[in-house]
Amino acid sequence: MTTVRPTPEETDGYAALMRCAKLLGQASERQAATDGGLTAIQLEILYVLSQSESGLRMYDLAARLNHSRNGMTYQIDQLEKMGLAKRDHAEGNQRAILACITEKGRAVCQEAVQSHVAFIDKVFTEPVGDDMKTLTVALNRVVAELERNR
User: Fold this and answer.
1) How far is residue 123's CA from residue 138's CA, in Å, rounded to a whole number?
2) Residues 6+ apart with CB under 8 A from 97
3) What is this structure's pTM?
4) Sign of CA dihedral 124, 125, 128, 132
5) Per-residue DSSP letter, 65
6) Alpha-carbon distance 32 to 120, whole Å?
């Protein structure tokens, strides 16, 4: 019986992906903190909320960002203290709580996102160049497989 092992190319690809994800996460944290005194997840929350006119249910927001519900509650608490987000009851369902972005949060988000896009262009897009479409397709396949097997 032979054991199937990954090829050196597969092992190298996996190792590079893991290093990239870790370094990109750390750099994103530093950039978000520099841009607005936020964590990367807080900036991501504000960005997602800025795309919704009426806010998002806490459960849906957590699921969309692949974050625990308890962790999302903590993050929204922090954003509320900064005046960047608020909670409201969903219309027609008093049990459902919506997370909403405030005008101050929208302004902070817009400024931080512009800076973050420039950062991503520098550290991610420029080195990838013409391979961006291929990389995106490949990574989306990996994400889909991981989500199927959760």
Assistant:
1) 19
2) 57, 58, 87, 88, 89, 90
3) 0.72
4) positive
5) T
6) 12
